[in-house]
Write a structure and sequence with these properties.
By secondary structure, the chain is of the alpha/beta class. About 35% of the residues lie in helices and about 25% in strands. The protein has 15 helices and 23 strands. The strands form 4 sheets. Strands 8-7-9-6-12-13-14-15-16-17 form a 10-stranded mixed beta sheet, with helices on both faces. The protein has a 6-stranded mixed beta sheet with strand order 18-19-23-20-21-22, with helices on both faces. A 5-stranded parallel beta sheet has the order 3-2-1-4-5. β4, α3 and β5 form a beta-alpha-beta unit. The protein starts with a strand and ends with a helix.
């Protein structure tokens, strides 16, 4: 079968392409403004990429077109597709029908941490010898790909709440019908399609309706919005977890992590009440990552992996690309790449790096690029999310029309807004010093600033 994928270079659709290729199908696809790592992954799989969305690509005469949610009515290719009569579907529907049927689906949902949690969970299952399939919205370094079929029963899917396609406005995850579901956290995000938290909670409630009675929901008991979803109706057993002991509701037995006050969470204990179930030693800093790991351990336990096996797996977990990934060290200056774009994720990432580097100068560079950020939905929380950085640079792209400088004014002179990425690179080169840690955060390619900055730093050192 010939499958043609529109929006193929998004992490999800790129994963669909990889799965279809592995299943023996001919796969082609198109996208606009592609950037690594997904473009590199697709090329390595021998998938033909077409730049742009010209209607002429339908002359390839595919058997079916898989439409990504970046496509909308009015796009000339979409209008030509509808007129052509060629069958079409969405990525989540294709995945559910052609991959997930008959598998033990483990779905990782939540506003933050989905990619890391899904990557950890997949590695635990792999370490246990279960050869899981997976589709993750990033590239785990243990696998070097974002998706694979696997031969075992488990299939791990990053369960995104964003809408499915222009013809299906339900959340992607309602297609997956998981046996094991993780609800990591829940905040207002995707403000372009969800007006408030309640509208997102409604979608999460639909997900819970599909988990069977012999399934499991792993839920963050410290997140009030998650617990409200559970309270509205859950027909499956629930394992509660949190990042620390909870004072409220003493009858609620929950798992939590424990770490020394000065620790960076690369070593932490897994607790249930006062009982220690084991101690994790791994390479990932930050409380948020410890919580992600605990959720993954509980989900893997439901799929038959002993906790001690899961804990042992974490020792060899290598991380995920674009999650506090060190892109290079030049002149004693360390440059990191991170996907953080929501204020909560920005704050958690900066806190994790601060714990790791101690009193060294931490320079935060943020591109407000997501649809929610472009709308200015979280402008009130922006300054607070950057508080632990010593120096803050923000790139205000042409699609961001609200007052970014005003939002970060509480940070005083240590924050500056720049509207040209080339100028931003120049300013960084002229102000960075040996020993600095530069944390660059964006959910896009950020005009390749990471590589440009490292090249310029190298040039100035010669």
């Amino acid at each position: 079968m010939h499958i043609h994928i529109l929006g193929i270079c998004g992490t999800f659709m790129g994963g669909i392409a990889a799965l279809a290729r592995a299943a023996g199908h001919r796969v082609t696809g198109s996208d606009s403004g592609v950037y690594p790592p997904m473009s590199e992954q697709l090329t390595s799989l021998g998938i033909e990429l077409i730049e742009g969305y010209e209607p002429g690509q339908l002359r390839l005469a595919p058997d079916i077109v898989v439409v990504g949610n970046v496509m909308s009515r009015g796009n000339t290719l979409i209008e030509a597709l509808l007129e052509s009569g060629i069958p079409y579907t969405s990525g989540p529907d294709w995945l559910a029908r052609h991959v997930l049927t008959g598998r033990w689906t483990l779905a990782v949902a939540g506003t933050h941490g989905k990619t890391t949690t899904a990557s950890v969970l997949t590695w635990i299952l792999e370490h246990a010898g279960l050869d899981p399939g997976f589709l993750i919205g990033g590239i785990p370094d243990n696998f070097a790909v974002s998706a694979r079929l696997g031969t075992g029963a488990p299939f791990v899917v990053e369960a995104d709440e964003y809408d499915t396609a222009f013809f299906d406005k339900r959340a992607k995850f309602v297609h997956y019908r998981p046996r094991t579901a993780i609800l990591n956290n829940l905040e207002h995000d995707h403000a372009d399609i969800y007006p408030d938290v309640a509208s997102i909670q409604w979608q999460f409630q639909q997900l819970l309706r599909m988990v069977p009675r012999n399934g499991l929901v792993v839920a963050n008991a410290a997140d009030a919005h998650v617990m409200e979803v559970i309270a509205k109706g859950c027909w499956s057993p629930v394992e509660h977890f949190a990042g620390a002991p909870l004072e409220r509701d003493g009858a609620l037995e929950h798992w939590h992590v424990a770490v020394p006050d000065e620790g960076d969470y690369t070593r932490f204990a897994i607790m249930r009440g006062t009982h220690c179930a084991g101690t994790v030693d791994w390479a990932m800093p930050g409380r948020h990552n410890a919580e992600n790991a605990l959720a993954a351990i509980l989900a893997a336990r439901h799929a038959g992996v002993d906790m001690d096996v899961a804990i042992a797996a974490l020792k060899s977990f290598k991380g995920v690309r674009r999650r506090m990934e060190i892109r290079g060290v030049v002149r004693g200056i360390t440059v990191y790449d991170d996907f953080a774009h929501h204020p909560t994720a920005v704050a958690a990432t900066i806190e994790a790096l601060r714990r790791r580097v101690g009193s060294a100068r931490l320079v935060a560079v943020l591109e407000p690029r997501s649809n929610t950020m472009k709308l200015g939905t979280h402008r009130e929380a922006l300054a607070g999310s950057l508080e632990l950085a010593d120096r803050v640079w923000l790139y205000q792209g042409p699609n961001v029309q609200w007052d970014v400088a005003g939002a970060v004014a509480p940070l005083g002179e240590r924050a500056r807004v720049v509207k040209n990425s080339g100028e931003l690179t120049d300013l960084l080169v002229s102000t960075l010093a040996p020993g600095d840690h530069v944390l660059i955060m964006s959910n896009g390619g950020f005009d390749g600033i990471h590589g440009r900055l490292l090249d310029r730093l190298a040039d100035t050192s010669s």
